[in-house]
Specification:
Elements (H helix, E strand, L loop, with lengths): L8 H6 L5 H16 L6 E7 L28 H12 L5 E6 L6 H13 L8 E4 L5 H9 L4 E3 L18 H13 L3 E3 L10 H27 L3 E7 L8 E6 L6 H8 L12 E5 L6 E5 L4 H6 L1 H17 L9
Parallel strand pairs: 1-2, 2-3, 3-4, 4-5
Antiparallel strand pairs: 6-7, 8-9
Length: about 325
């Protein structure tokens, strides 16, 4: 994709003086020059609806707005998986799982990770999610379960946000975006026009969204200046702009584990709370995950279940006997 220099604040505001026809014509030319005439299809699954405690004034999901919409809890695993697979049979590049509320609970996230783990390899990379303000550990677990893309809007300019929502802050939303990026997820973020903001605030909102990406570039520069060097690259499938995840370390401290876990071509046996075992067959490239309970009390209380799940390691390699690495 060809990169174009960003407009200055003055140039961005000057666009408002153009006649609509001229503005739309130039926008179309820029879009085609950068992305061509291809259409990138997305679909959304409403996986939990309504009864949100947040008071976002623009959102029908908020219980404060009394909008006549369907209200239901997180879809059962089988129903959610069925909807994903129906969309995966269509030429849809991004299948978004969207839930109402500030964030999913730990139990709900465990259900979602289990659904992701059972999806075919061709469908899982196309799934993305909008699940609210998740912690760094929760986002990392989703990435470990195969999620590659996360959606979280900044909504509007930082200065205007308190006028459209009082139950959370703009900074909380920004920090969620940064946590998702640090977890290795591609982030889709945007905002809304027409919330009573000025054109200057609209420009500022776009500028702040760009700054989030600049923070990642800043981190890269600081790492290299401090003697940390890149040593592995993980290219995610179906990622806008062909974006990459890069791992850094001090010279001489490279770890093969990081390469294996990103490449997903090596079996990794994991132990302990929150660990994820990855089983890989070099015969057909089949990949299967086994999840451990996250919290220590769950891990201890359900240890018999943990051991039972580990029996799947033997079964997996009985069903997918590895090819010999040497003929002799």
């Amino acid at each position: 994709m060809e990169m174009f220099p960003a407009a200055t604040p003055a140039q961005a505001l000057a666009l408002l003086s153009l006649p609509d026809a001229r503005l739309f014509e130039q926008a179309a030319r820029l879009r085609e020059a950068a992305f061509g005439r291809a259409v990138d299809l997305c679909a959304i699954i409403n996986a939990r609806s309504g009864n949100c405690a947040m008071d976002c004034r623009f959102c029908s999901q908020s219980r404060h707005n009394h909008t006549p919409i369907a209200v239901f809890d997180l879809l059962p695993d089988d129903a959610l998986r069925e909807r994903i697979l129906k969309l995966a049979a269509l030429p849809v590049n991004h299948i978004g799982i969207v839930t109402s509320g500030a964030a999913l609970s730990e139990a709900e996230l465990a259900h979602l990770r289990a659904v992701l783990a059972t999806l075919p390899d061709a469908a899982r990379p196309r799934v993305c999610a909008s699940l609210g303000r998740l912690s760094a550990a929760q986002l990392e677990q989703l990435a470990g379960a195969g999620l590659t893309r996360y959606h979280h809007n900044l909504e509007t300019a930082q200065s205007h946000y308190p006028r459209v929502c009082t139950t959370q802050t703009w900074e909380q939303r920004r920090d969620t975006v940064l946590r998702a990026q640090r977890a290795g997820l591609t982030v889709c973020t945007g905002g809304l026009f027409g919330l009573g903001e000025s054109w200057e605030e609209r420009r500022k909102a776009l500028e702040q969204a760009q700054q989030v990406g600049q923070m990642v570039s800043y981190a890269q520069k600081q790492l290299m200046q401090s003697g940390w060097m890149p040593y592995y690259l993980y290219k995610q499938r179906n990622t806008l702009g062909n974006l990459e995840n890069t791992g850094y370390c001090k010279p001489g401290c490279e770890g093969r584990y990081n390469i294996y876990i990103m490449d997903e071509t090596q079996t990794i046996l994991a132990a302990g709370a929150g660990a994820v075992t990855k089983l890989c067959s070099n015969r057909e490239g089949k990949l299967e995950r086994i999840f451990n309970y996250k919290y220590p009390f769950e891990y201890v209380e359900q240890f018999d279940e943990v051991l039972k799940r580990k029996d799947r390691v033997v079964d997996f390699f009985e069903e997918n006997r590895p090819l010999p690495l040497r003929k002799d």
